[in-house]
Amino acid sequence: MFQFFSKYKILGVVILILSVIIITIIYLILKPKEILPVYQPAEVNTELVDSTVQHVKKYHTIADFSLTNQNGITITQKDYKDKIYVADFFFTTCQTICPVMTDHMLIIQEKIKDDPEILLLSYTVTPTIDSVAQLKKYAVDKGVNDAKWNLVTGDKKQIYDLARKSYLAAKDVPYNPYDLIHTENFILIDKKKRIRGFYDGTKMAAIEQLLYDIEILKKED
Fold it and tell me: Quick one: which of 32, 165, 202, 221 is 20 to 30 A from 123 by CA?
């Protein structure tokens, strides 16, 4: 009996290995490809959507913009063309959620520093205070990598409209054109200027999910 099993031992090992390979291939073929949702204004909490776009159910994209970064350089959509990027809204004098959000954005910056496909973009919600010089000081103090991350300032209405109507990242109730209640959300934008995810920028678990989702997004055609 022992001689019988010994004789077919190699054959058994080969069959076992082939079985594992076949099962793995079948699993990979049948496993559904992970795809991130494309968020439309009509699908997002109405508190975060300007009333003028709450009806939009498809084709929503981030509007064009022209603002100035921490180095005094004009930044537009062209700087993010064919890039995946993470956006948020903050202000340099904020003492509540913004410091935590910045620290978490710095973690993302470190993770993507060698990835040419990914960029970061932070809009100040107090542009009258956050001048180019103020943003530059903040960027230097925090360790912002200018090649990966733009902190932008400029026209207040433009920034507020972007928050309310494009990124869906500001509470719209009640609407106040002179003030903005920005959220803690980081917004993941794809290469087609579409919103692909919202993440709580104050929570590390959400940042880990964001980094995971970026990898999913990179695999899209």
Answer: 221
